[in-house]
Amino acid sequence: MRALVISGGGSKGAFAGGVAQFLMEEKHRHYDMFLGTSTGSLLIPHLATGNLAKLYKIYTNVTQRDIFSVNPFVQRKKGDREYVSINFMNSLWQFIKLKRTFGESKALRRYIKKQFSKEEFDLIRQNCKDVVVTVSNLSKNRVEYKSINDFDYETFCDWIWISCNYIPFMSLVTVNGFEYADGGLGCVIPIREAILRGATEVDAIVLESEQIQRQKVLGKNPFSLMLSLFSHLLDQVERSDIEIGKLAAKHRNVKLNIYYTPTTLTENSLIFSKRLMTKWWQDGFDYAKYKHGEPPSNELK
Question: In which element (H, E) is residue 175 found?
Fold first, then answer.
C-alpha cells in the first residue's frame, strides 16, 4: 500500500504540486492513501482525483483574497522582492470586536468548496482512496486525523479548512464544543500516521530544505517577530515528525522516500504570488526529476 504525504508550508505547496506531478505522471506512482497537513490538506483531495491540471491552475492563481475574509497582512513588493507586513488597522479592528485572532479565513472555506466539488468527493470514495487531513484539537491538546471515509462532503471540507487555519492569524474554529486549528501546530508531516494506517511505501514531500542555507532574518516589530517565532517552532515540530517517521519506517520495514526543497524557497509562506508559485511548481517538478536521475525539463508537460 503506497501513501503520499505532504507537509504544511503555505504558498510553498506549489513546490509539492510539482513533485507530485512528476511522481504521478512520469513515474506512474499510484497511491492508496494521501495524507496532508495545512497546505498539504488542500493539495491531497485534488491529487486523489488525479486532476493535476486543475490543481496547477488553482495553486498558481490563489491570492490572499481567496484566503482571508479579514486579512491581517498587507502584501508589498520592493524591486523583485515580495513580502508581507502587518495590516495594523484590520488587527486593531479584530481587537475592538473582542476577537481572539488577528484575521479571519472564512474566504478560504468558500474557496475550498468552490474548487473541490461534491462529485470529486464521491469519486474519491468510489475509487477506495483514503484522504486524511491533520488538525489540532487545542481543547484536548492533541493531534487528530480526519479521513474522507468518515464524513460527509460538507464536514470534510470543513476539516480541510480547519487544517489550514494558522492561528492567531486565521480563524479559530469550534466543532462539537472543541476548538480546532492548523494541524501543523502538532504534526507538520504525518509520516508516522501513514505507516500506522498500513502504508508499506511512503513518498513524503517536506516543504523545507534539509539544511538551513542562510541566516534567518527576524521580524522588526512584535507582529513580524511572532511570525518568525512561529516559523521556528514549526521547524522543530517538523524535524521531530521526520525523525519519528524514519524510526517507524525502519521498525515496520517501510520504504520511505523524502523530498525536501533543495533551497529555502521563502522566509514567509504567507506570500501568494502567481509568479513565485508558478516557479516553485516548476522547481518541484524539476527537482523530482533530478532526484530520480533525469535531466530537468524547461517546461511542464
Answer: strand 173-175
